[in-house]
Amino acid sequence: MRYRDRQGNEYKVTTNQDRFLNDAYDSYLGRSVLEIASLPVFSKVSRKVLNSRLSSGFIENFAEKNGIDMFDYEDKQYSSFNEFFTRRIKPGRRHFEPDEHKLVSPSDGKVSAYEITPSNTFVIKDSVYNVDSLLRDKKLAQKYAGGYALIIRLSVDDYHRYIYPLSGIKSHDRNIKGFLNTVNPVANRHVEVYKENSRTYCMLRTEFFGDVIQMEVGALMVGKISNHHPWGNHRVRQGEEKGMFEFGGSTIVLLLEKGAAIVDEDLLINTREGAETKVRQGEQLAKSVK
Fold first, then answer.
1. Whose CA is closest to 223, among 201, 197, 203?
2. In terms of C-beta distances under 8 Å and separation of at least 24 residues, what long-range contacts does 259-264 make, across chains too?
3. First and final CA of the chain: distance in angstroms?
4. In what order do the strands lie in the sheet with 161-163?
5. What is the DSSP letter of 7?
């Protein structure tokens, strides 16, 4: 997979997760196994195992194989793998200056940026998605025609807690149950990823960016998206923690209204050229037009 950092340096990286999914999706047997693994009941059983004390034995090997720098994270003895996976970062390791004229990344990850066409479609890798089917709300989808979709894909080595990218009043969370499937791009050769995944989203009513949709998408072996403020009419602050994902690669989607934001040019250029942009939580993704 092709990644670029914010300085324009390009990397071609194949992670253990990418390699496993590439092999699995390229065989009928592998796809059958992943289909079973994506069932909600399998996720529930997996979550119980990963929350058990026995799972703590996986931590050291997992961190080493995935190149996770534990210096960034709080020093503690983790009682289970999921406690490790949802670990908190040390203060100051994801620093940003609050600025309501800047939309910041809610998480670590690899970003793709797309303009939402008048027909309300955008492309993630080789698959075409409709904002209507993503939100399951045709009227709401029309609100974002001509705007931008920012797709932030997390892999297992990323920090899996996420924040609010802006201050504002949030709506209640809307939960959409789905057939859990991987958000890794290689899956797009065989399935339309977002139509298969469970997801949760809310609207943030902001001063300088209008109404922003923030959506969390569950992935393979992720049976739970844990948000701290599921209720509506709740005031939140830019940089405030919104929630966390349990084990697996996951994705966050931001939808911006037409004319509300100027998306950073490097994100748009890299996406057009087939590369994702590696960002850290708190980095700027767009500026307000106002």
1. 197
2. 259/146, 259/147, 259/289, 260/147, 260/209, 260/210, 260/288, 260/289, 261/103, 261/147, 261/148, 261/209, 261/286, 261/287, 261/288, 261/289, 262/286, 262/287, 262/288, 262/289, 263/113, 263/148, 263/150, 264/113
3. 36
4. 161-163, 241-245, 225-227
5. T
- What digits encode the pLDDT tens for the residues 65-117? 888 888 889 888 999 999 999 999 998 888 888 999 999 999 999 999 999 98
- Does residue 38 carry a catalytic annotation? no
Q: For residue 112, give every residue at least 6 positions away whose Cβ sits within 8 Å of its Cβ, in sequence order, or none.
A: 124, 125, 150, 151, 153, 267, 271, 276, 277
Strand partners, 18: none
Catalytic residue among 108, 158, 173, 264: 108
158 catalytic residue (yes or no): no
Which among 20, 287, 283, 19 has a CA at the least distance from the CA of 152? 283
User: Which candidate in 158, 250, 264, 288 is catalytic?
Assistant: 250
